[in-house]
Design a protein that fits this description.
The protein is α+β, with helices and mostly antiparallel strands and 828 residues long. It is 64% helix and 7% strand. It has 27 helices and 11 strands. The strands form 3 sheets. Strands 6, 7, 8, 9 and 10 form a 5-stranded antiparallel sheet that branches. β8 and β9 form a beta hairpin. α9 runs parallel beside α12, α19 packs antiparallel against α20 and α20 packs antiparallel against α21. The chain starts with a helix and ends in a 17-residue tail after the last helix. It comes from Streptomyces similanensis. It is found in: Cell membrane. Keywords: Cell membrane, Membrane, Signal, Transmembrane, Transmembrane helix. It is a multi-pass membrane protein.
Amino acid sequence: MVAFWVLIAGLLAAAAPALESVEDNASANLPPAASDSMKARDLVRAQLPGRDATPAIIVVRGKGTDAAASATRAVAAITSVLSGTSRPDHVVSVVSTVTAPGAAAELVSQDRGAQLVIVSMKGSPSDESFQNAVDEVRALASDRAGPADVAVTGPAGIATDTVKVFSGGDRVLLLATIVLVLIILLAIYRSPLLALVPLLAVGVAMRVAETLGAILADAGVITVSSQTASIMTVLLFGVGTDYALIITGRYRETLLDEPDRARAMQTAVRRTAESVLASASTIVLAMFALLVAVSPALHGFGPYLALGVAVMALVAFTFIPALVLLLGRGVFWPGGVDKAAERSRGAGIWHRVAALVARAPAKVASAVIALLVVLSAGLLGYQESFNTLSGFRAATESEQGQHLVQEEFGPGEIAHSTVVVRSHDNLRSSPARAYIATALTDAEHVSRVPDPRMGEDGKTVFYDVVLDLDPYGSKALDAIGPLKQAAQNAAHAAGVRDATVLIGGETAQSADIRSALDRDTTLVMLLVLAIVTAVLVPLLRSLLAPLYLVATLILSFLATLGATTFFTVTVLGDDGIGNRVTAYIFVFLVALGVDYNIFIMSRFKQELRTQPPAKAITAALTRTGGVVSSAGLILAATFAVLMTQPIRELFQFGFAMAFGILLDTFLIRPLLVPAIVRLLGDRALWPTRPGTPQTPSTPTPDPPSTDVPAARAADAGSARLLRAFTWIAITEACTWAGLLVGMYLKYIPETTELGVRIFGSLHGAAFIVYVSLTVLVAIRLKWRLGRTTIFALLAAVPPFMTVAFEIWARRTGRLSQPASAASPAPAL
């Protein structure tokens, strides 16, 4: 098994492209493709050739007694070098007082001490060649500016600095995570070999997940950004060590009664399978819930992380047990097996915590809830930020340039908005053009409106609008709606027939991102809560328990967001919470926080077989206290490493996750949940009621001898069902592998639609049989699926992957629409 995973990791690494080469950092920061701002951008590109270039804004401020002359000389020198033959290849045009003297009113500050040079650059800002060209422009501008201050900002400068800030912290993040996790594992295990096992497992899982992700991203199936890759690193380290701690902790406990190491490991894996798989399933499904989002920032975030967690779960159940057994008794060196097993009984502190909960459950629950409510009060200062530059925790030239522009020219000059008015009539000679321009000039928060530009079709007019607000601030975003309405009213009053008004530019895109995120956040929150509830109901076989467990998760989220807002906005002075951070915190905190509830409640359910509810929850708390708290501490520490990153969103997300996980680990799971269970007593798992506990002193009587044949027949029937279920699951998994090899990786335009339909039909038939057998096995085995749930996870994915593949193939043109289709139809 160990050799298998090493071989798989090596083969995939040899076949896959580098993850950095397929990362898409541009689309993650764009609004939905159907939004007005994106439609406006497309019209600019179609109707104004050359205007689709990305502008780099060079701001020059003169020095000395004659600042105006100093700025003029610097601008002349910069314009000469960027307009000459030695200019960077990506430079399309240069607009300055030298090339466009008539634009001096817009390019020169009121005191004439500062000037702007607009450099239009072709290419994609995400390409390395584009970023190198921006660096060349910066070097040339700095060299020719003389004593004058100069900075390159604007969309081109901001995009380049964003990539630099992200790329600078990846290695530091990985190294810091490894060192931190290793130190904590050594403190927990007190054995160097056992501490290395989770790290090796995470390394294998990360390599497999990264290479699979790179292959899928290269094929256009998923998108991966630098931010997603950073979060994947800490997520796998946290989740992987959690699963390793749970499995090895139960293994040490089993060694108390079972000296044979192989049988002890089998027992440990079997007894932790249900809770660990429920945990992994919750995280994977929560990540896939993000697919309902329309904003690219959320929509493309989940699949890659879901892939990583699924791979980590498989590695945890196969690689970790095999490696521990291969290392033999030496894995517990220097303390030995006996000491390692004895520590699994639970530390004294957890016995005292359990006693506290048992003495006063109402007081404990009230105190914890009161603390969570107090922490939630930090939400009074909650606000969001859409300013990318203010989110950098490192000095950048683009931020320096933005401050210069705001000081010398006004806040809106850094990023203009483009109002697009499109009609069915020709507007070349229409007086409506001037009428609309006047109306826009008179609109609220508009600083100036230059002369409009006419599109090639004569039916589209473009107005550059400069606001008197910070184009990335919330007030500017609020101004987009009224500005659109003002243009719409002016076009109607001017007699423009069937006028369509769109607004493009950085501010309009941020406004559309905000609208999409507001919609997506609410929808994703509801869906994730539904997923968590759906996982908890069959796991605990209860309708009541999922309700109060989900309620604790909501309280934990509100308290975490309140504390994060207070610390980062009120104390540290951030402009606001990053616009995507709230959704990220909710999805991850709920998906990961419920893990610890799953672990303790699953153990509580197991203890109910031999003990009454009061003693069962005490035993569950003391037995899981050390392992789960250690897992939570490691998970919190790995997310805290994100606070080393020089990006506001990652800093805030890292702080929130570390804080929230510690809340779940040391307040929710050991105090609030057990207190609620104690208060509910026999109704804690309603409608399931605990049966008569079985103890060694009152063994369950053997069935009468007359029932032995029937019992054997039932066991034989269950075994046959189990074998059939397993073979169907294996067949489904193999078919999925064939699909990946034959269609994802080797897909060619000549592949017929019939081939896709055959694959779809095979998966559909296999899935129907799989679901039927799952229900039969679940009923026959009284929902105790045990190890078969591993195959269930494998087999449940392929049908959905088939559907996703065909949708992707049709949308990307790799698979044509059916020839018989007379009208537009859905992809399937």
